[in-house]
## 1
Amino acid sequence: MTQDVSPRFEPPDGWVPADQRWFGLDRRTIAPTLTVFAVALAMSVVLPLIDDTIPYRDVVRAGDVIELRGDVTFVPDAGWGITSGVRAGHGPASGGYPDRATVVNEDTTFTVRTATFHGDADALLNQIEETADALNRGRGIHVVGEHTTIVTDQGKQGATARITGPRRNGIIAAFVFDGRGVEAQATEGSEVGQEPAAAVLRMIRSISSGEQGER
Amino acid sequence: MTYAVTASVADLDRARAVALDLSGWGRDFRFYQPRNLAFWGYLLLVTTGAMSFGSQLAREYNAYAPAIVLAVTLFAIYGSFFWWFTVRVDRYAKLPAKLMVVAFLWGGFAATWSLAVNGNSALLALYAKGFGQAWALDWGAALSAPFIEEPAKGIGLLLLIALAPRHVRTAFDGLILGAFIGLGFQIIEDVAYAMTSAGSQFGSNQVGASLATIVLRMVSGVGAHICYSAIFCAGLVYLLGRPAEPRRIVRGLLLMVTAMVLHGAWDSLPALAGLTPLATLGVLVGLIVAALVVVSWVYRMTVKRERDFLRDVMVPEEARRVITADELGAMTGGRKARKAHRKAGRGRRERKRARYVLNAAYDLAGVLAAARGADTDQVRFARAEVGRIRAGLPSPV
C-alpha cells in the first residue's frame, strides 16, 4: 500500500519566476492582457467614435409617412433627418414596425413612441410624467405647467404640456387610440417659454392610428 | 509475484502524478495576484461594468422597483439551476469553484457593460446609417451580437488562462468556464431586458410587461448564451492549445464560428420567422435544439480527456482494491454507464448502495487530486469511506 510518489512542491498562483519578471510583473501575462485591452478599446472607443463621425443621411422627402407598431403613423416635415424608425410600406421583413421613431432637424429632436396603455390621454401624460420624474429624480427633462388639449388632423383629442430639462426645452403630447398610447416629444436647445416650432406642431397633429396614410 | 504487483502499482501511481500535473485538477486557485497584469485588467473591466450596471439599476429601481425585484429574484433562481447543472457536468477533473465565480462575473459585468453594450450600439447605428433602418431592424442584431458579444465573452477566457494557467488545461475546461461566462452574461442581460420591458408601457403595468419578457428569456435561454460561450471557449482553447490539449486550429476556428452562427441565427429570428406565431415558435424551438445538439456534441468531444485523467487518478485505487473494475468503468463513463452500474444491483437497497459507493469514489478522487496523489490522512479516510459504505456500516460521524 505504500506509494513512492510524493507530491512535487508547487509555488502558489502569482509566483513569478526570476527570468519572467518585467518591472515586477509576470511578462507572460502582458500579451493576453494587452490583447483584451485592444478588443475592449475597439468595442468601447473605436466603434463609437466611427459611429459619431458618420452622420445619418436618411432625409424625409415630401409625402413620407413614418409608421410605428399598432398602425400608428405620423408625417414628418420634408428635409428632417430620420435617425430611427421606418417609412410606412418599407418596414422590416419581419413585418413588425418598431415602437419608436425619431426625426431631427438641426438642434430639434422629435420622437414618437407607442405602447399598450389603458386610460385616456391625460392619464397617459400623468403616467409619462410620473415615470420620468422617478427615473430622473427631478434632474432630467420634466413637465412644467398645466396640461392643455391638442387635437390631431384626424380629430383625435390628446393632452399636451411644456417640458424642460438641462439645456433643453420643448413640448410633449399624449394620445390614446383604442388601448394604444402614443407619446410625442420634441426638444430643442432653446430658452424656456419659446413657442414650439410650427413644424413640430404639424408633426404632432399628423399623428394617427389605423389609417393607411400616404404610402 | 508480489514484487511485480508492487511495481505495477508504483507505475500506476506515477501515471497518476503525471495526470494530476497535466490536468491541474485539485490545485488551489488564488485570485489576488498583484504581479499578474491579467488580474488588473480583469479587475478594471469587471469593476467598470459592475458600476455601470449598478448605476443603471439604482436609477431605474426608483421607477420600476416591483419589476426589478421580480426579475432579480426569478433570474437568481433560474441562474442557480444552471449553476448547479454546470457544476454537475464538470464531474471529472473539476475546476475550482472560485474560478467559476470569476468566469461568471466576467460574463455578467465586463463582457456586457464594459464591452458589448458600447460595441453593439455603435455597430447597430452604423448598419442603420449604411443599409437603412428597416434592414438594420431585420439583420442588425444578427450581424452585430455574434461579432461583439462572442469575442467580448471569449476574451474573458484569455484572462482566466493568464490568471490560472495551471488550472485551465483542456478544451473541456474552456467549455465549462465558457458556460459560466455565458451564464453571467445571460443573467445580467436578462435583468436588463426585464428593466427595459418594465418601461415599455410608459411605466404602467410594469410587472405584467416584464413578466412576459422574463418567461420568454427563460425559455429561450436554455439554448442561448450559455451554449454559445461554451462552444466558443472550447474552440478558443483548441485554437490556442494548452499543455493538456494540443493546438487544433481548424477545429478551434470551426467551433468559434459555429457559436457565432448559432448566435446570429438566434438574433435574426424575427426576420427568419416573420410575424406568424407558429413559424416563430418553430424557428425558436429549432434554434434551441440546434444549440443543444451542438453543445452536447462538443461536450462528448472534449470530455474524453477529462475522463482519461480521472481514470489515471483512480486506476491505482482499483489496483489497491479500493474500488472495483466495474466501479472504475462507471465513474469514468457517461450517464448511461453510471446508470447501468446502479441498475446491475439486485434490489433497491443494493442499487442505492452502488450509487453511494460511486459518490464516495468521486469524493476520493477529489481528495487524491487535492493531495496531489499523496497518501495523506484525508486520502486514507476517503478510502475508508468507500469501504464503509460498501460494507453497509454506519457513518462514524
## 2
Amino acid sequence: MSAAELSTPLAVTTTGPAPAPVRRAEPPDRRSIPLTVITGRERRGRGQRSARIPRWVVKAISPLLLILLWYVASALGWLSSNTLAPPQKVVAKAGELLRTGELQDAILASAQRVGLGLFFGVTAALVAALIAGLFKLGEDIIDAPIQMLRTVPVVGLIPLLIIWFGIGDQPKLILIALGVFFPLYLNLFAGIRGTDPALIEAGRTLGLRKPGLIRHVILPAAVPSGLVGLRYSIGVSWLILVFAETINATSGIGFLINNAREFFETDTIVLCLVLYAVLGLLADLFVRLLERTLLAWRPSFTGT
Amino acid sequence: MATVVHRDLSTRPAGEGSTYAVRVRGLTKRFGDRAVIGELDLDIAPGEFVVLLGASGCGKSTLLRVLADLDRDITGTVEVATRRAVAFQSPRLMPWKKVWRNVVLGLPGRPDRTRAETALAEVNMTHRSDVWPKVLSGGEAQRASLARALVREPDLLLLDEPFSALDALTRLTAQALVADLWTLHRCAVLLVTHDVEEAIKLADRVLVMRDGVIAHQARVDLARPREVADPRFVTLRAELLAHLGVQEH
C-alpha cells in the first residue's frame, strides 16, 4: 500500500457524508528500531527464608522484646518500683486480686456500664438513623440538630451531667450512650442514604413497595457502614468508660486504679491498663466476628 | 391485564384483560425544554418481539424506563401489561442475597427455592444457585437477571441493552439464550439496543429511533434461527444502518 492510501482513515460517521481524508506528515522512519532486552529476574532468597518463620512469630518479637526490656530495667534498678512495677509483680498482683475476687468484681462492674451504655446508645442511634434516613421529614427534624450537637465534646458534658444526675452511675451511662450514639448514627445514616439507586430501581421493577425495599435493599446496603460505625462506637465507649471511672467511681476497674494511685501501687495500675486494653480488644474482635458473618457477600471482603 | 398510566399519575386497571401488551399514544418526555421523546406512538401485541434500535442518546432507554414505570414525568397515555419484568444493562442483583434468593425476590409468599432453581435451569445456572453474586462472571450475572425477570411469567419483558456490558463472544450466546427463552415463554418483549445484527436476529419488528421519534419500522419475516450470512439479513442490515444515518465506507 502506498503512503497516500495508508493515510486515508476508515471513516464511520453518523452525521452525513464522510469528511475529506486528513493529510499527515510523512510517518516516522521505521527501518532502524531500538530494542529493549527483557531478561527474567531471579527471585530473591528472602522469599524462601521467611517461609520457615511464621509471620505471627516475627510480629510478636517486638512486644516480647519490650517486655524483656521492662524486666531487665526493673531488675537492674534503672526502673524503681515506685515509678513502674516490674512485670512479675503485675502478674503476682493479678493472681492476688483474682483470689480475693476484686478483679472479677471490677471487670464485671465496668463491663456492665459499657454494656448498658452501648445498649442505649446503639438503640437510640438505630432508631434515629432509620427515621432520618428513610423519611425526608425525619431527616429535616432529626439530622440538623444532631449535626450541630456532634461537635460538642462529649466528655466535656461530665460536669453538667453530674449536676443533673448526681455522682452515681447515671451520668456515666448517659455519657457512654452519647459517645456511642454519634458515630453509629452518622455512619448508619450515610449508609442508608448511600444505597445504590440502581438497586432500588431494580427492586421497584420486581414489585417491591416501600416496606419491601427497606427490608431487602436499603437496610442490607447500610449494614457495612453500620458496622464501621459500631466499631468506632465501641472504641469510644471504652474510652469514655475509662475517663468516667477515673473521675469518680465506687466500683469497676477505674475504682481499682484510683485506689492504687493513693498508695502508689503501680503494679495494680499497670494491671488495670492491661485489662482495659484486653477488654477493648475483645470488643473489637466481637465486631470483626459480626462483620465476618454479616459481610460475607462483599466483594472486597478478604477475611479477618 | 393492562395498567393505565396517565399524565395525572393515577393507576387503575383498564377493566378486563386487553388484547395488547403495550399501547402508547402521544408520549412526550422533556428534559428542561428539550424533548427527549416527542409525540411517540407504540403498539406491542401479546407475544411479539419488538426491538427498539437507535444510537446513544436517541431516547430509547428513556422510553423503556417509562414503560417500566420508573418515570412518570411524562405527557400522553401509556398502557403497559401489569405483569411485566425488566432486565437492565447491568445485572443489578442484590449482592447480599444468594443467587436463588435474588431470582425469587419480589414474589409473594416465602422464598421458594424450587421455583428459583427451575428458572435458573432455563438459563443453565442451577450449579450457581447458592453462591453470592460477587463470584459470578458478567455473563452469569446477566443470566441470573434474566431468570429473575422470567420466573414471574411476565406478559411483557423489557430488556434495556442487556448485552452491552458483555464481551462480544458472551454476547452471541446470550442473544441465542434470549431467543430460546422467548420461544419458551412467548411473552411480549421490548429489547432496546444499538446493535443492528442483534435486532435482526431477534425481532419480529424493528423500530428505528432517532431524536425521540420512531423514524422507521421494519418487519423481519426471516425464519428463526436467523443466519447473519443470509442475503436478506444483509439487505435488511444495510437498510437499517441507512435509516440510522450510519455509513460504513
